[in-house]
Amino acid sequence: MQVPAFEWIKNLMTFTLFLQHIVNALSLGSLYALLAIGYTMVYGILRLINFAHGDIFMIGAYVAFYGTALFVLPWWASLLISIVFTALFGIGLERVAYKPLRDSPRISIMISAIGASFLLENLAVLIFGGRPKGVEVPKVMGQVLNIGSVSFLGVSLFIPIITFGLFVLLMWIVNGTKTGIAMRAVSTDIETSRLMGIDVNRVVSFTFGLGSLLAAFGGIMWSYKYPQLNPLMGVMPGLKCFIAAVIGGIGNIGGAVLGGLLLGIIEIMIVAFFPTLSGYRDAFAFILLIIVLLVKPTGLLGKRQAEKV
Amino acid sequence: MKMNKNQLYTVVALCAILLFIVIADNCFDAFTLRVFNLCAIYIILALSLNLLNGFTGLFSLGHAGFMAVGAYVCALLTMPPELKEMNYFLTPIVPILKNITLPFFPSLLIAGLASALVGLLIGAPVLRLKDDYLAIATLGFSEIIRVLITNAQPITNGAQGLKGLPRFSTTYTVWAVAGVVVLFMVLLMRSSYGRAMKAVRDDDLAAEAMGINVFKVKVTSFTVSSFWAGIGGALLGHMITTIDPKMFTFSLTYNIVLIVVLGGVGSITGSVLAAILVTVLMEALRFLDEPMNFLFIHTGGLPGLRMVVFSVLLMIVVIFRQKGIMGGKELSWASVAAFRERHSRKGRPQ
Question: Which residue ranges form the domains of chain B, and what is each CATH number?
Answer without folding.
Answer: 30-289+302-347 (1.10.3470)
